[in-house]
Design brief:
Length: about 140
């Protein structure tokens, strides 16, 4: 084998070794990413389930919730007082699936869910409700 052929062979081996090292480094980085993303996703799911939705929000405190989800003056016929404590993300998620909110009648639960569906950005509980709408939640 000539010196030139020997140099080409050594160069090819060096290049192959460098490529393998790069692939191994990328693989190691990928494993770290997977390990750190999984707990973050679990934490996100947990925080969505544990988030709270006040009904009504603090700007409408003391108001009742009408069947269509709008706020109404206290003692309005057909309207319901708020539940007294914010609703949990898990309870709202279950109600989105067709169950009744805990401690409420069917009509009351429907009114509260109509109120929640009308939440807009900036209102208390909107982020929680929006998170429940994301696929996989």
């Amino acid at each position: 084998m000539s010196d030139m052929d020997q140099q080409d062979t050594n160069s090819a081996r060096d290049t192959a070794a460098q490529t393998r090292r790069r692939v191994l480094k990328l693989g190691a980085l990928g494993a770290v990413t997977v390990v750190s993303v999984k707990p973050a996703l679990a934490q996100t799911v947990s925080s969505v389930i544990n988030c709270k939705i006040p009904v009504p929000d603090s700007t409408h405190a003391g108001q009742y919730i009408a069947a269509d989800g709008s706020t109404a003056a206290p003692l309005t016929p057909g309207a319901f007082p708020g539940p007294g404590a914010p609703l949990s993300g898990q309870d709202v998620k279950n109600a989105l699936g067709g169950t009744t909110l805990p401690g409420t009648s069917s009509a009351q639960s429907q009114a509260y869910m109509n109120y929640i569906r009308k939440l807009q950005m900036g209102q208390s509980g909107f982020t929680c409700y929006a998170s429940l709408q994301m696929p996989g939640r």
